[in-house]
Amino acid sequence: QQLSSVIENLDGVDSVQVDMLWMERLKKLLEISKKLVLAISLTLVIGGIIVIGNTIRLSIQGRREEIIVTKLVGGTDSYIRRPFLYSGLLLGFFGAFLSVFLLIIGIIWIDRSIAPLLELYQSNFKIQSIDFTTIIWIFCAGMFTGLLGAWLAVLQHLRSIEPK
Q: Is this prediction's pTM over 0.90?
């Protein structure tokens, strides 16, 4: 409404017609899409934690005898836990790397598809790529997800392995 009053006061403008109902609909659609993106993101994070946790669990089961021997010679749980946490961290890092790579490829692909349409409308609109700060956040979130999944798996399965 402020924009319409500013435009109406310009020289050479007789009247301004603004469809506020359309703007409200667009605002509600944007709110719904933000919630949908958040729900999908949380689902993917939970899935990542489960996958990484399962991978670490399989690694623990594969190295069961080694863990028993390490405990017999005096290895602490934190000493045994450390390599698995590093594995989870690396899995999270490589998952984040793959995500960033696919995101950049997707942006380029969509931009190439939209460019001819924008030329027809003589628009200078350009799809922005992700900035460096966002990439860093994606890597941090991926590594945290990997570390969390590994921590939960190690916490759950390391206690069950005791030397006899």
A: no
